[in-house]
Amino acid sequence: MASVEFQNVSKTFGSFTAVPDISFSIADGEFVCLLGPSGCGKTTSLRMIAGLETPSAGKVLIGGKDVTYLHPKDRQISMVFQDYALYPHMNLADNIAYPLKVRGETENKRHARAREVADVLKIGDLMRRLPSQISGGQQQRTSLARALVYPSQVYLFDEPLSNLDAKLRLEARGFLNHLQRDMGMTAVYVTHDQAEAMALATRIAVMDKGRIVQFAPPIEIYRRPATTFVANFVGNPPMNLVPVAALVDGGQLRLRADGLTLPSLPVSDAIAKAAAKGKMTLGIRPEHLRMAEAGDANTIAGKLFANENMGPESLVTMERADSGRVTARIFTDDEIRTGDQVTLSFDTRHVTLFDETGARIPAIGE
């Protein structure tokens, strides 16, 4: 396996800049997810690692070697595509063994290796079938087997699970997680699904408009999102973001918003500097909200907009007077109807503050 590095890489298509000057490093054995909405530059970045796109500027390194202008076949990479890209006229054995065929391996050796990988992926009994004769999940495993049949330095995945149904995606996700840990492969995985990224990655690069907004382990991104964009993109449901008026009074931070009751908070230099602008955003994850009880100090109130029963829990969404909405993931058997007044409470230890630009304000003690 090998490391991957971007050094001031940019990519333009005519007058459109898809990736504007990004730099990052992926260590040997890491599983990194490029996460972001459509058009954020994640697939373009992956294709530049693969050699399917040439950077307009900067360098791409694999294992410390400059491969910026190297042909894909000379990079020792394997790639799994979104549409699987299986040859319809070849059976599974030939599809899986094809990378070995183009490298001149004998038929016996390549078929033996294909069988070995197929058995690991539990498709060994399907080797004589055509792609049209197997399910979507089996096609996905075939595409994965073809990528694994030849030892590579880096494995690239371009939204490989997006065509699977929910049950197969969950199964395939668990399998990929186990496979990566077992092989110690260096993997770069592109997805717009934050649940996939959270489950698979050792680190996630959250991308927006061609730039990396935050590059950190999943739990770091979830607990301490760098911006309101990250907070709103990662999490299902995403973090609640409430615009507030901010004022430092007597060394304490006071926040005001419709329906919000919040005692003053301690102030750090970073909080004081942000509060001087007069506006902040208060962030709180849905699981950190609960139905308020008498005497609760930190509350936010509004009218019930929706109550979604998810089985063991409910997603309760309320609408405040200024039309802002807040969602809570709660465990309750209480009957709540649309239009009912709802009050939720929270612990200030779980509050995240963002300044007027949307950047996270470091908590006291960080």
The class by helix and strand makeup works out as alpha+beta
Count the E strands. Answer: 21
CATH topology of the largest domain: Rossmann fold
Query: Main sheet: which strands, in order across?
Result: 6-7-8-3-9-10
Shape: elongated
Strand content: 25-35%
The proportion of residues forming helix, as a percent range, comes to 10-25%
Mean pLDDT: 90
Radius of gyration: 25 Å
- Low-confidence segments, given as residue ranges, are none
Tell me the distance between the termini: 35 Å
What is the chain-wise order of helices and strands? EEEHEEEHHHEHEHEEHHEEEEHEEEEEEE
What is the CATH C level class of the largest domain, in words? Alpha Beta
Report the sheet with the most strands, covering strand number, pairing sense and barrel closure. 6 strands, mixed
> Could you give me the name of the CATH homologous superfamily of the largest domain?
P-loop containing nucleotide triphosphate hydrolases
Integer count of domains? 2
CATH architecture of the largest domain: 3-Layer(aba) Sandwich
What is the number of helices? 9
